[in-house]
Amino acid sequence: TSSWIIISQPSILELLGPRLKARSLDSYEIIVSEGESAKDLDEYRSVISKMIEIGCDRSSTILALGGGVVGDLAGFVAATYMRGIDFIQIPTTLLGMVDSAIGGKTGINLPEGKNMVGAFHQPKAVLIDPTILESLPREEAISGLAEVIKYGAIQDRDFLTWVSSELDDIKTFDFESAITRCCAIKADVVSQDEREGGLRRILNFGHTIGHAIEAHMGYGDVRHGEAVAYGMNCAAWISEQLGILPAADRRILSDTIAKLSLAAPPPLDQDAIL
Protein backbone atom coordinates (compact mmCIF):
# COMPACT_ATOMS: atom_id res chain seq x y z
CA THR A 1 0.00 0.00 0.00
CA SER A 2 1.00 3.60 -0.48
CA SER A 3 2.17 5.29 2.70
CA TRP A 4 0.65 8.64 1.65
CA ILE A 5 -3.11 9.22 1.76
CA ILE A 6 -4.32 12.59 0.47
CA ILE A 7 -7.70 13.63 1.89
CA SER A 8 -9.14 16.60 0.03
CA GLN A 9 -12.14 18.06 -1.80
CA PRO A 10 -12.82 18.23 -5.56
CA SER A 11 -12.33 21.99 -5.81
CA ILE A 12 -8.97 21.82 -4.04
CA LEU A 13 -7.67 18.92 -6.12
CA GLU A 14 -8.73 20.70 -9.30
CA LEU A 15 -6.69 23.71 -8.21
CA LEU A 16 -3.64 22.01 -6.72
CA GLY A 17 -3.70 18.58 -8.37
CA PRO A 18 -1.14 19.52 -11.06
CA ARG A 19 1.34 20.58 -8.36
CA LEU A 20 0.98 17.25 -6.61
CA LYS A 21 1.39 15.26 -9.82
CA ALA A 22 4.53 17.23 -10.60
CA ARG A 23 6.00 15.88 -7.34
CA SER A 24 5.39 12.28 -8.49
CA LEU A 25 4.11 11.44 -5.02
CA ASP A 26 3.14 7.79 -4.63
CA SER A 27 -0.22 8.37 -3.00
CA TYR A 28 -3.92 7.57 -2.89
CA GLU A 29 -6.56 10.28 -3.00
CA ILE A 30 -9.70 10.15 -0.87
CA ILE A 31 -12.17 12.80 -1.96
CA VAL A 32 -14.71 14.13 0.54
CA SER A 33 -17.74 16.37 0.10
CA GLU A 34 -17.45 20.10 -0.38
CA GLY A 35 -18.28 22.38 2.52
CA GLU A 36 -19.04 21.82 6.18
CA SER A 37 -21.14 18.75 5.35
CA ALA A 38 -17.89 16.77 5.08
CA LYS A 39 -17.49 16.99 8.86
CA ASP A 40 -20.11 14.41 9.80
CA LEU A 41 -20.21 10.79 10.93
CA ASP A 42 -21.22 9.42 7.53
CA GLU A 43 -18.25 11.06 5.79
CA TYR A 44 -15.94 9.91 8.58
CA ARG A 45 -17.12 6.31 8.22
CA SER A 46 -16.70 6.53 4.44
CA VAL A 47 -13.09 7.70 4.73
CA ILE A 48 -12.26 4.98 7.27
CA SER A 49 -13.81 2.33 5.00
CA LYS A 50 -11.76 3.53 2.01
CA MET A 51 -8.56 3.41 4.06
CA ILE A 52 -9.31 -0.16 5.11
CA GLU A 53 -10.03 -1.05 1.48
CA ILE A 54 -6.76 0.52 0.36
CA GLY A 55 -4.89 -1.39 3.03
CA CYS A 56 -3.61 1.48 5.14
CA ASP A 57 -1.65 0.51 8.24
CA ARG A 58 0.12 2.28 11.10
CA SER A 59 2.95 3.35 8.79
CA SER A 60 0.56 5.31 6.56
CA THR A 61 0.52 9.11 6.71
CA ILE A 62 -2.47 11.29 5.90
CA LEU A 63 -2.00 14.57 4.04
CA ALA A 64 -4.87 16.90 4.92
CA LEU A 65 -5.05 19.12 1.83
CA GLY A 66 -7.73 21.77 2.23
CA GLY A 67 -9.31 24.23 4.59
CA GLY A 68 -10.47 23.82 8.16
CA VAL A 69 -13.14 21.27 7.28
CA VAL A 70 -10.69 18.90 5.60
CA GLY A 71 -8.10 19.41 8.33
CA ASP A 72 -10.56 18.69 11.12
CA LEU A 73 -11.96 15.57 9.43
CA ALA A 74 -8.62 14.20 8.24
CA GLY A 75 -7.05 14.89 11.62
CA PHE A 76 -9.82 12.99 13.40
CA VAL A 77 -9.41 10.09 10.99
CA ALA A 78 -5.67 10.10 11.73
CA ALA A 79 -6.31 10.24 15.48
CA THR A 80 -8.60 7.22 15.43
CA TYR A 81 -7.54 4.94 12.56
CA MET A 82 -5.77 1.93 14.12
CA ARG A 83 -5.53 3.97 17.36
CA GLY A 84 -3.67 6.79 15.66
CA ILE A 85 -1.45 7.39 12.63
CA ASP A 86 0.62 10.36 11.48
CA PHE A 87 -0.82 13.23 9.48
CA ILE A 88 0.40 16.47 7.95
CA GLN A 89 -1.67 19.62 7.63
CA ILE A 90 -1.46 21.46 4.29
CA PRO A 91 -4.00 24.28 4.76
CA THR A 92 -5.32 25.95 1.62
CA THR A 93 -7.42 28.69 3.24
CA LEU A 94 -6.45 31.65 5.38
CA LEU A 95 -8.57 30.33 8.24
CA GLY A 96 -6.73 27.02 8.08
CA MET A 97 -3.31 28.67 7.91
CA VAL A 98 -3.80 30.91 10.93
CA ASP A 99 -6.00 28.75 13.11
CA SER A 100 -7.46 25.31 12.48
CA ALA A 101 -4.31 23.62 11.12
CA ILE A 102 -2.34 24.54 14.24
CA GLY A 103 -2.80 23.14 17.70
CA GLY A 104 -3.94 19.55 17.24
CA LYS A 105 -7.70 19.95 17.56
CA THR A 106 -9.60 17.57 15.28
CA GLY A 107 -13.25 16.64 15.09
CA ILE A 108 -16.58 16.30 13.36
CA ASN A 109 -20.01 17.82 13.88
CA LEU A 110 -23.22 16.32 15.22
CA PRO A 111 -26.75 17.71 14.86
CA GLU A 112 -26.43 18.69 18.52
CA GLY A 113 -23.42 20.92 17.93
CA LYS A 114 -20.16 21.71 16.19
CA ASN A 115 -17.05 19.61 16.95
CA MET A 116 -18.93 17.49 19.49
CA VAL A 117 -16.81 14.43 18.62
CA GLY A 118 -13.08 14.86 18.30
CA ALA A 119 -9.58 14.36 19.64
CA PHE A 120 -6.36 16.22 20.32
CA HIS A 121 -3.90 14.85 17.75
CA GLN A 122 -0.91 16.95 16.75
CA PRO A 123 0.15 16.96 13.08
CA LYS A 124 3.73 15.96 12.33
CA ALA A 125 4.06 19.16 10.30
CA VAL A 126 2.05 22.13 9.05
CA LEU A 127 3.03 23.21 5.54
CA ILE A 128 1.87 26.72 4.61
CA ASP A 129 2.16 28.32 1.17
CA PRO A 130 0.65 31.84 1.26
CA THR A 131 0.65 32.05 -2.56
CA ILE A 132 -2.31 29.64 -2.57
CA LEU A 133 -4.43 32.48 -1.18
CA GLU A 134 -4.14 34.33 -4.50
CA SER A 135 -6.69 31.93 -5.97
CA LEU A 136 -9.16 32.20 -3.09
CA PRO A 137 -12.57 33.86 -3.52
CA ARG A 138 -12.75 37.15 -1.64
CA GLU A 139 -15.36 35.71 0.73
CA GLU A 140 -12.93 33.00 1.88
CA ALA A 141 -10.23 35.56 2.60
CA ILE A 142 -12.69 37.72 4.55
CA SER A 143 -13.74 34.72 6.61
CA GLY A 144 -10.13 33.99 7.53
CA LEU A 145 -9.44 37.62 8.38
CA ALA A 146 -11.98 37.41 11.20
CA GLU A 147 -9.68 34.89 12.89
CA VAL A 148 -6.70 37.17 12.23
CA ILE A 149 -8.52 39.97 14.05
CA LYS A 150 -9.23 37.57 16.91
CA TYR A 151 -5.53 37.03 17.56
CA GLY A 152 -4.91 40.74 17.85
CA ALA A 153 -7.88 41.13 20.18
CA ILE A 154 -6.83 38.38 22.58
CA GLN A 155 -3.06 38.76 22.69
CA ASP A 156 -1.47 41.65 20.78
CA ARG A 157 -2.91 45.18 20.66
CA ASP A 158 -0.17 46.40 18.31
CA PHE A 159 -0.97 43.58 15.90
CA LEU A 160 -4.68 44.47 16.02
CA THR A 161 -3.80 48.08 15.18
CA TRP A 162 -1.63 46.89 12.29
CA VAL A 163 -4.40 44.60 10.97
CA SER A 164 -6.90 47.46 11.13
CA SER A 165 -4.55 49.64 9.10
CA GLU A 166 -3.91 46.88 6.55
CA LEU A 167 -7.66 46.39 6.10
CA ASP A 168 -7.98 49.92 4.74
CA ASP A 169 -7.02 48.33 1.41
CA ILE A 170 -7.51 44.58 1.40
CA LYS A 171 -5.97 44.32 -2.09
CA THR A 172 -2.55 45.08 -0.60
CA PHE A 173 -3.06 43.20 2.67
CA ASP A 174 0.20 41.59 3.84
CA PHE A 175 -1.08 38.06 4.34
CA GLU A 176 2.34 36.50 4.90
CA SER A 177 3.14 38.78 7.84
CA ALA A 178 -0.33 38.23 9.30
CA ILE A 179 -0.03 34.44 9.01
CA THR A 180 3.41 34.47 10.62
CA ARG A 181 2.22 36.48 13.63
CA CYS A 182 -0.99 34.46 14.09
CA CYS A 183 0.92 31.18 14.00
CA ALA A 184 3.38 32.49 16.58
CA ILE A 185 0.57 33.57 18.92
CA LYS A 186 -1.30 30.29 18.63
CA ALA A 187 1.83 28.15 18.97
CA ASP A 188 2.77 30.04 22.13
CA VAL A 189 -0.68 29.57 23.67
CA VAL A 190 -0.92 25.88 22.73
CA SER A 191 2.59 25.15 24.04
CA GLN A 192 1.43 26.37 27.46
CA ASP A 193 -1.98 24.67 27.45
CA GLU A 194 -2.36 21.96 24.81
CA ARG A 195 -5.53 20.41 26.26
CA GLU A 196 -7.44 23.65 26.84
CA GLY A 197 -7.41 23.52 30.62
CA GLY A 198 -7.13 27.27 30.99
CA LEU A 199 -5.15 29.71 28.82
CA ARG A 200 -6.03 28.07 25.50
CA ARG A 201 -9.65 29.05 26.04
CA ILE A 202 -8.78 32.58 24.92
CA LEU A 203 -8.52 31.14 21.40
CA ASN A 204 -12.27 30.54 21.58
CA PHE A 205 -13.01 34.27 21.71
CA GLY A 206 -16.08 34.81 19.53
CA HIS A 207 -16.66 31.08 19.13
CA THR A 208 -19.19 30.51 21.93
CA ILE A 209 -21.85 32.58 20.21
CA GLY A 210 -20.31 31.95 16.79
CA HIS A 211 -20.75 28.18 17.02
CA ALA A 212 -24.31 28.65 18.25
CA ILE A 213 -25.06 30.79 15.19
CA GLU A 214 -23.58 28.14 12.89
CA ALA A 215 -25.60 25.36 14.52
CA HIS A 216 -28.81 27.40 14.39
CA MET A 217 -28.43 28.62 10.81
CA GLY A 218 -27.06 25.34 9.50
CA TYR A 219 -23.42 24.41 8.98
CA GLY A 220 -22.25 25.85 5.69
CA ASP A 221 -25.05 28.42 5.45
CA VAL A 222 -22.85 30.94 7.24
CA ARG A 223 -19.07 31.03 6.93
CA HIS A 224 -17.18 30.19 10.10
CA GLY A 225 -15.27 33.47 10.08
CA GLU A 226 -18.47 35.45 9.69
CA ALA A 227 -20.02 33.65 12.66
CA VAL A 228 -16.89 34.29 14.73
CA ALA A 229 -16.97 37.98 13.79
CA TYR A 230 -20.58 38.24 14.98
CA GLY A 231 -19.60 36.31 18.10
CA MET A 232 -16.68 38.63 18.89
CA ASN A 233 -18.89 41.68 18.58
CA CYS A 234 -21.47 40.11 20.89
CA ALA A 235 -18.88 38.99 23.45
CA ALA A 236 -17.24 42.41 23.43
CA TRP A 237 -20.60 44.14 23.95
CA ILE A 238 -21.43 41.81 26.85
CA SER A 239 -18.00 42.45 28.38
CA GLU A 240 -18.54 46.19 28.09
CA GLN A 241 -21.94 45.93 29.77
CA LEU A 242 -20.39 43.95 32.64
CA GLY A 243 -17.68 46.57 33.11
CA ILE A 244 -14.89 44.21 32.04
CA LEU A 245 -13.98 45.83 28.71
CA PRO A 246 -13.54 49.60 28.31
CA ALA A 247 -15.88 51.13 25.73
CA ALA A 248 -12.91 52.50 23.77
CA ASP A 249 -11.40 49.01 23.38
CA ARG A 250 -14.74 47.57 22.32
CA ARG A 251 -15.01 50.25 19.63
CA ILE A 252 -11.50 49.49 18.32
CA LEU A 253 -12.52 45.87 17.84
CA SER A 254 -15.92 46.61 16.31
CA ASP A 255 -14.45 49.23 13.97
CA THR A 256 -11.83 46.74 12.76
CA ILE A 257 -14.45 44.04 12.19
CA ALA A 258 -16.60 46.59 10.33
CA LYS A 259 -13.80 46.94 7.76
CA LEU A 260 -14.55 43.37 6.64
CA SER A 261 -17.89 44.69 5.30
CA LEU A 262 -19.76 41.58 6.41
CA ALA A 263 -23.46 41.37 5.69
CA ALA A 264 -25.66 41.81 8.75
CA PRO A 265 -26.75 38.45 10.16
CA PRO A 266 -30.38 37.54 9.52
CA PRO A 267 -32.87 37.73 12.40
CA LEU A 268 -32.01 34.95 14.84
CA ASP A 269 -34.10 33.08 17.38
CA GLN A 270 -32.48 34.18 20.65
CA ASP A 271 -33.81 31.21 22.61
CA ALA A 272 -32.43 28.79 20.02
CA ILE A 273 -29.02 30.50 20.07
CA LEU A 274 -28.88 30.27 23.87
Automatic annotation (TrEMBL):
Spell out the molecular function terms from Gene Ontology: 3-dehydroquinate synthase activity; metal ion binding; nucleotide binding
Reaction(s) catalysed by this chain, per the record, are: 7-phospho-2-dehydro-3-deoxy-D-arabino-heptonate = 3-dehydroquinate + phosphate
Q: Name one Pfam family in it.
A: DHQS_C
In its UniProt entry, what is this protein called?
Answer: 3-dehydroquinate synthase
Q: Which organism is it from?
A: marine metagenome
Signal sequence coordinates: none
Show the GO cellular component annotation of the record.
cytoplasm
- Domain 3-dehydroquinate synthase C-terminal span(s) in chain numbering: 144-264
Q: What is its EC number?
A: 4.2.3.4
Q: Which UniProt keywords apply?
A: Amino-acid biosynthesis, Aromatic amino acid biosynthesis, Lyase, Metal-binding, NAD, Nucleotide-binding, Zinc
GO biological process terms, semicolon-separated: amino acid biosynthetic process; aromatic amino acid family biosynthetic process
Entries under SUPFAM superfamilies matching the protein:
Dehydroquinate synthase-like
Query: Which segments does the entry list as coiled coil?
Result: none
* Ranges for domain 3-dehydroquinate synthase N-terminal: 30-141
Its taxonomic path starts at: unclassified sequences, metagenomes, ecological metagenomes
The Swiss-Prot or TrEMBL record lists the needed cofactor(s) as: Zn(2+); NAD(+)
The protein's annotated pathway: Metabolic intermediate biosynthesis; chorismate biosynthesis; chorismate from D-erythrose 4-phosphate and phosphoenolpyruvate: step 2/7
CDD domains named in the record: DHQS
InterPro entries, alphabetically?
Dehydroquinate_synthase, DHQ_synth_AroB, DHQS/DOIS_N, DHQS_C
